[in-house]
Design a protein that fits this description.
alpha/beta, two-stranded parallel sheet, 9 helices, 9 strands, 15% strand
Length: 281
């Protein structure tokens, strides 16, 4: 085992990509502070590497609790060199059929929780003139598909926030990277997903096959969480990390197709776009 170098703070380390990120960082000899939801999850996490795997109980949707938790980590455990905002979940359901309360909850976790974590670590990173914030977004922050409007909305928001923050803190020695994974073999589409009920038959033909296909493909996704973790560790160790990183062949193909389609649509409507400026004198 190598000597402890960087300290990482990773949200949502109990399972999925968050667990894979934590295990990869621990294998490199880093100290990892991971957020969990209960005592049993804390015990399991700390058993991965006693003394270097440190669990803190936190629900990132409780934004009022975040600042004191991060302050405790900075004072009692050590400086946070890298924040990985991983905690989040997916909501599935057509927009018309999905209660707006589900959208609020989706944004509370996927957006406000992540922003709360960033705001908590930034004063420390800014004073040290060093740090790296990695926000796990999704290919759903670039592309869309029927039935996940709330999820895509939250990930589009996090992509935008990340890009703006990267410009605001670049002169302070702080890097910000938004990582957009494609379909990885985690439980995102399984027990972790919140699914709204169906009650409007007009959507049956469009949405029912999508829901069935997602359920059938769960556990067979092409992305390997361990390889995603290796890619994120490469980011952690990069001298000049990118602002955006896409993970997975499916995400790369779909995002490139979206950018081509968007560019073509902009070109097709260019004359109308340009018609709205004041005429030159």
């Amino acid at each position: 085992m190598r000597a402890i170098g960087k300290q990482l703070l990773i949200t949502g380390v109990s399972s999925g990509l968050g667990r894979a990120f934590a295990e990869a960082a621990l294998a490199k000899g880093y100290r990892v502070v991971g957020t969990v939801r209960n005592i049993e999850a804390a015990r399991r996490f700390e058993n991965l590497a006693p003394g270097r795997a440190i669990a803190v109980q936190l629900d990132v949707a409780d934004v009022e609790a975040i600042e004191s938790v991060v302050m405790h980590i900075e004072k009692s455990v050590g400086p946070v060199d890298v924040l990985i905002n991983n905690a989040g979940y997916g909501h599935e359901g057509t927009l018309e059929e999905s209660p707006i309360e589900e959208m609020r909850r989706q944004f509370e976790v996927n957006v406000f929780g992540a922003v709360g974590m960033m705001k908590a670590v930034l004063p420390f990173m800014r004073r040290r003139r060093a740090g790296h914030i990695i926000n796990i977004t999704s290919m759903g922050g670039f592309i869309t598909m029927p039935g996940i409007a709330y999820y895509c909305g939250s990930k589009f928001a996090l992509e935008g926030v990340s890009e703006v923050l990267a410009k605001e803190v670049k002169d302070f020695g702080i890097s910000v990277t938004a990582v957009a994974p494609g379909s990885f073999r985690t439980d995102w589409a399984g027990r972790s997903m919140v699914r709204s009920g169906r009650n409007i038959a007009d959507y049956d033909a469009l949405f029912d096959p999508i829901r069935r296909a997602r359920e059938e493909k769960n556990g067979k996704q092409p992305g390997d969480p361990r390889k995603a973790a290796a890619a994120v560790m490469a980011l952690v160790e990069a001298e000049k990390p990118p602002v955006h990183l896409v993970l997975g062949a499916d995400a790369l193909s779909l995002i490139r197709d979206k950018l081509k389609s968007l560019s073509a649509e902009i070109d097709a409507w260019e004359n109308l776009t340009l018609s709205t400026d004041f005429a030159e004198a």
